Amino acid sequence: MSRTLHVAHFGQGPRRVLALHCTLAHSGAWRGLAAEIGREATLTAPDLLTHGRSPDWDGQGDFQDRNFEAMTPLLDGSMDVIGHSFGGTIALRLAIAHPERVRSLTLIEPVLFSIARHDAPAMMVEHERMMAPFIAAMEAGDAARGARLFNRMWGGAGPRWPDLPERTRAAMIRSVHVLPATNAAVYDDHAGMLAPGVLNSVSMPTLLLRGADTDPIIGVVNDGLARRLPSAENEVIEGAGHMLPITHPAETAAALRAFWAR
């Protein structure tokens, strides 16, 4: 059974956008981008389960499945869909399932590591080595250490763990335990999005964005998607890391404006 998500709205522009945030964040992650494009677009931004003001995932079924089901009703009419990181995996799944409702698709550093597993297996070995301390912390039941390690790996140039507000650290600790539950979607492509022919339905204009300073495995993922999607553009934002919608909202907005104009 799907759960009701908390949904925030930003901006007052005519372009209707569905924006899906990354894990350990919440809908407020889009405030900076919305401040840049709020006259052009209205963002509908749900909180993932166990994130923000949405209820906790009850552990039933698959975590991506539950969020996909809960977000599908938000895709109302023809919308521009943006997804960041794990939110990008859900955004792509929505575009596959409902291409008639997705006017354009923007995937910002989608963590579809199943592509890297196929295209660059040696890089996956290095990625698994990098993730090992986080996995060990989670297996030991140390959610605080797990959240701190995950933030260090993917937070880029953002504040270090001790410098984050206590409320932010608490929110990350609350949500970090769902990360192992994303593995089936992220590493194993349990929804079959990469099966032969499936991505052919994603024929709407698609923008693949990544930061120049992000983990190299993201480049493998975005380049792999660019080869597999019929109408994809692949762009890099200089000076940015994985959290580019938050750290570089003006540059992200500029890329979106140019993409939408085309």
**What general form does the structure show?**
globular
Number of helical elements: 11
Mean pLDDT: 95
What is Rg? Answer: 17 Å
Report strand %. Answer: 15-25%
How many strands, which pairing sense, and closed or not: the largest β-sheet? 7 strands, mixed
Helix content: 40-55%
- Biggest sheet strand order reads 1-3-2-4-5-6-7
Subunit organisation of the chains: single chain
| Pattern of helices and strands | EEHEHEHEHHHHHEHEHH
- Uncertain runs with pLDDT below 50, 5 residues or more? none
What structural category arises from helix and sheet content? alpha/beta
Could you please describe the fold and organization of this structure?
It is a single chain. By secondary structure, the protein is an alpha/beta fold. It is globular and about 45 Å long. The mean pLDDT is 95.
